Amino acid sequence: MTSGLRTLPIRVAPLPGEALDSWLETLAHRSMVSFREILIALGLPGRRDGSLPDLTRYLEPEQAEQAAAVSGVPADRLHAMTLRQYDGHALVLHPHRRTVNRMQLWGRNGSRYCPQCLHEHDGRWQLRWRLPWSFACTRHRILLPHACPSCNQRTRHGRVSIFRDLPPHQCPTTLKPSGALCQTDLALAPAAALREDSPVLASQRWINDLLDRVEQGQAQSLPTPQMIFNDLRALASWVLRIAEPGDFPTLDPHVEQACQDYAGDGQFSPTSAAVTAGGLTHAVHILQQGSDKTNIATLRTLLERDGERLDLMPLGDINKRWRAHSTALQQLIWQAMDTRMANVDRLRFRSCTTRPRPPHKMNETLTTARADRVPQLLWRGWTARFLPAAGVRNIGNFRAALAVALLLPGASKRHFDPLISMLGHQAQLDVHYTLAELAQQGHDGVLTGLCEIADYLDTQPVPIDYERRRGLTGDGLLPADDWVSICTQTGVHPGQEARLLSVRRYLYQRITGNDLRQAPESLRITTAEEAGGVAVVPFRITAALLGALDEYGENYLRGLGIDEPLTWEPPADLAAGLCLPGRPVDVRRAHRLICAEGQAPAVAAKEMGVALESIRHCFEQHPPSSPWPSKSGGSWVDPSRPIARRSRLAAAQARQQAHTMLTDEFLRREYLDARKTVREIASETHLPKRLISEVLNQSGLIASREPSRKPIVDEQWLREQYIRQARTLASIATELDMSPTTLTRHLRAVGIEIRPRGGRRSVSRTELESVPPLIRPALTDRRCWGRLQRFREAMEHRTLAEASRQLGTTRSVLYTQFAALEGDLGVQLYIRPRRGESLRPTKAGQAVMDALTDSEGARPGGNTIETGIPPASRQNP
Ligand SMILES: [Zn+2]
Ligand SMILES: [Zn+2]
Predict the structure, then answer these.
(1) DSSP state of 411
(2) Phi and psi dihedrals of 873, rounded to 5?
(3) Alpha helices, DSSP H only, in 52-114?
(4) Contact in structure between 584 and 593 (CB atoms under 8 Å)
(5) 100 neighbors 239 (Cβ within 8 angstroms)
(6) How far from 582 is each of 36, 46, 385, 585, 615, CA to CA, in Å?
(7) What confidence tens digit (pLDDT) does each residue in 709-737 have?
């Protein structure tokens, strides 16, 4: 044969998955030339010393091009026959040294083989047999031998002799001391058979799928094969080192035995396919089973055996050891650690979930950001889910502690203080205690739930900025007027000031989520009674009232420039699949027990076997549509307790009444069309003038009323009354239904001089002596006659109101005048009539009336007594 062939006379197509060396040897054998000549023909360097690096590991690009040109096999096909395609995925190569890195991914040299495959394919070798991950032939169900059964040399291991001229299925080892070649037919080598259902075969198939992904160039999708192989190596070496019989499902006996006999530490890839099979099958099992309980328990056993005193092992060490591995594996390790960790750390590492992850310093900003999304007190709905049926000692502390605990997942430090102050809590909170209580009672689901919520808050949009809500002072929230107006709308009795304060506090908490124990002073709760007042609100509100309060709250927020929903909670479906202590409340039953049967909420809660707080939440979610009486007399519809007079509430109620009565239509008719004065409207409606003016001002009707063209009061009449009859300003003003100030203005306008105050003309001594002594004290000035006479006339009517109408004045004027008389005479003149009774004089009153009649006959000019009422002829001068 001559060297320097341009192309090979015989062409041999590589088999699928064949290794480069196998193909080259076959080519040489078929071409009846030496291996060395084939290498030279293909332009692949041969060294003078007769050995060369194993080309099957790596082919330089130009080598591949040249070999491709000569052999007719495309260059990429040639590359695919080298380990290069697995580089960085299933093993790591030193490219120029053309060696496999044994420190990573269990890299190994040499090649295992399937004798039966060799036999079937003319002794040709598969590339995959060189990988540490190949330990069984799934077709022939055998473990792969790794050495020649005769000379015991590892196959395809070490440098390649270029002088060998053997078919690839023969052992090329040079035997010492004879120097002869072994030449054992490896296709006939014995191999250990595996059961058809052997887990070893299943795990080899699983691994083969991964290798398929690499070969098909699909190694980028997560988790990448590289990550998985890395995990497999770590788990397999760990298992080989510490697993004991019984830890895992049993494998084929010879595999089990090989594993137990194995003395290595698993750091490097075990030579034996049986040991490799044992380690990797258990490793694949662990990854496949995932969060399965038994699997976690197995891992926990391994961890415990590994670290003798796991409780004392710093979490940081465990983290360091596993953090280079895939997320999936780390999650399994932390789940296995969960029962060994303090509750705080279980939350920080999220080890109580199926997706644990160690906290990281970088997470601190995340914690701060999450604090903006958490209220001071845990949401009511979630409180109801997390609350044990027996309740807790202090619901406020419970809710506050769990809100703080929401900041723990991912927190880099174990300290609570910064987290507590992030939520604006001023008091110390024993978060440890709350978490320990829950865990002790077996309510681990709460910890898991907290992690789920934290994850949700970190990743999903949250419509409320709780940090801003925490800062709300509640200034101007629900003043008496607004409360009364809401009550009027919703048919609720406004109650006393205490009720308003409770509702205001309730609304403040509903809006802000704040702890009322540290609210601004005007809203702060300091006593148990105050706390009780707020706690009872959900058991008093009706659907209409709650709706109105919420609408009010929303407007309040808008007023502050906050365009957010009033309340919000993380979705309830985050609790799906969790075992939580809070049981759902049967709404109908709760309504029946409390509303229809009048049971106290606490009693009803006990009977239903749920926490009181859960019932409270239930009533908030499903407030009864109509109000109901309660045994404690706490219904808010019961009007039997009137509003305290002179209270802000009473004033608000009056205002509310004014707004209701004085409709636009009413004001147009009475004020604009009938040109009635405020005074007139007041006397007709019995509303205070102040409120009428207020409503008028707001209605904007004042400007629409045309000013009077003629003077209201006749000048001559005024002169007659004020100057000649010397009546007082007050008396005339009362008669004209105007204020003394207005009257003064009128008088001045027509040039009448105003008398100095106190210039009343007294009754003359002679006149005084002519009247019975009984009425003398009342005669302080001339007008007194009028008062006395009026009194007598009034007593002929059934009521003061009727009398006032008849006398052409108002009830209040009569009342004031008679009160003055009584004051002067020092006796009560008439019995204040109750409902249904008629006006009647007392005995003293009757005596005064008689004395008046007696004196009238005796008094000079008795018929000109000033009655305070102008004669009919003067009324319209
Ligand atoms: Zn096979
Ligand atoms: Zn041999």
Answers:
(1) -
(2) -65, -25
(3) 61-71, 75-79
(4) no
(5) no
(6) 80, 78, 4, 9, 11
(7) 445 677 788 888 888 777 888 888 877 77
In total, the chain counts a number of residues equal to 877
Ligand 1 center from residue 279 Cα (angstroms)? 21
Whether the CB-CB separation of 164 and 172 falls below 8 Å is answered with yes
d(CA 53, CA 770): 152
Q: Which residues partner with 185 through β-bridges?
A: 170
Q: Which residues contact 64 (CB under 8 A, 6 or more apart)?
A: 75, 78, 79
Alpha-carbon distance of 649 to 216, in angstroms, equals: 81
Q: What does pLDDT average to in each consecutive run of 10 residues of the chain (877 residues)? A: 55 91 89 84 70 79 89 92 92 80 87 95 94 95 94 84 78 85 92 93 96 90 90 92 86 90 88 94 93 90 77 77 88 89 91 88 79 94 91 90 93 84 82 91 92 94 94 90 86 83 94 91 90 88 91 94 94 92 90 85 90 91 76 57 66 78 81 80 80 80 61 74 80 79 81 67 65 75 76 84 81 81 82 77 87 69 42 37
Distance CA 699, CA 146 (A): 102
**137: part of which helix (H) or strand (E)?**
strand 136-137
The pLDDT, as a whole number, for residue 233 is: 93
Q: Which two tokens stand for residue 766?
A: 């002679």
**CA 491, chain centre distance (Å):** 33
Taking alpha carbons only, the member of 402, 409, 408, 370 closest to residue 383 is 402
| 532: nearest Cα among 506, 567, 493 | 506
User: What is the secondary structure of 487-525 as a DSSP string?
Assistant: HHHHT-----HHHHHHHHHHHHHHHH---GGGS-TTT--
Beta-bridge partner residues of 136: 143
CA–CA gap between residue 22 and residue 125 (Å, rounded): 5
Q: How far is the CA of 191 from the centre of ligand 1 (A)?
A: 10
Classify 827 in phi/psi space as left (phi over 0), alpha (psi -120 to 50) or beta. Answer: beta
Mean pLDDT computed over every residue of the chain: 84
Distance (angstroms) between ligand 2 centre and the Cα of 155 equals 8
550 Cα–ligand 2 center, Å:
88
Cβ–Cβ < 8 Å for 523, 531: no
| pLDDT on residue 3 | 41
Separation of CA 600 and ligand 2 centre (Å): 92
Ligand nearest to the CA of 134: 1
